[in-house]
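Here's a chain:
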Amino acid sequence: MQQRASEDDKTTVSPALTDLFGRRHNYLRISVTERCTYCMPEEGIDLTPGSELLTTDEVARLARLFVSQGVDKIRLTGGEPTVRKDIVELVARLSELRPLGLNHVAMTTNGVALHRKLAALKAAGLDSLNISLDTRDQQKFAAFTRRNGYRQVMLAVKEALRLDFSPIKLNVVVMRGQNDDEVPAFVEMTHDDPLDVRFIEYMPFDGNRWDMRRLVPYRELLKRLHTIYGDDLVPLTLERNHTAKGWKINGYRGQFGFITSMTNMFCYACNRVRLMADGNLKVCLFGNSEVNLRDVLRAPGSTDEEIIRVIEDAVKRKKKAHAGLDILSQLPNRPMIKIGG
């Protein structure tokens, strides 16, 4: 059985980032753009006008405020963050917050345009990568994304390994009848390389054509893998504030895990909040409640204390858990491209 991380291993954060259930939010995910040709729904979406998106200076100021309150990990997301022209500069700006308590700067990316920027991102202070890859099949990749790009993604993975990014995680959204048969092939990617493959249960968001029949519960996938690997399949100790239930195969360099948002939610351990590209703060991925930090930030004479107060009010309104599977798909939510991965 997997072990839960020690309850004594707690992150120190201010009351502003501690909710009414004692959860300490030390992890900030920042969406830096809504643009992504890879993950745009086929029917498209209305993008936020550029003047209403956060500027680099505004992102840096808000990041500094969150770090001052105890955030020690920041992940840049999108859309696709590498399409932002100043993404290397932004990573460097965030890295300047390390003396204030920031320990880790990460990025989630589709990897298509990544490999040419990796060396510069590493030099700017990027620590780790999550790369989205839902299939190992080039034809499926083209069908899923409506463009070719598989070779570029694999080049990015290879280059990230060469540059010693750690960890390097591959995000695989598993969908029945589309790529669930590829789960063993993804596990085999951990044989020779220190990769962390994360199988993500299919989740409902606006524009992704949610269908319960496409959801593959993680226990079903785990049962399939047990039939292949037997006793060589071993569980890993859960990290603090875990999202993935981790496993590895004896003798393999890497590992894999399951993000079970739909069938075995982990709200009790949630330590993350999301700042979206338009400046809205979202305290729960599946919640449709948001608070606008951009307008507070841009108000004449706005002070750090006022912004922190708005953040605290939002965190204090966070619910104990998101809605159950039976009603979650019926609730309105933004498309994932606008929330940030």
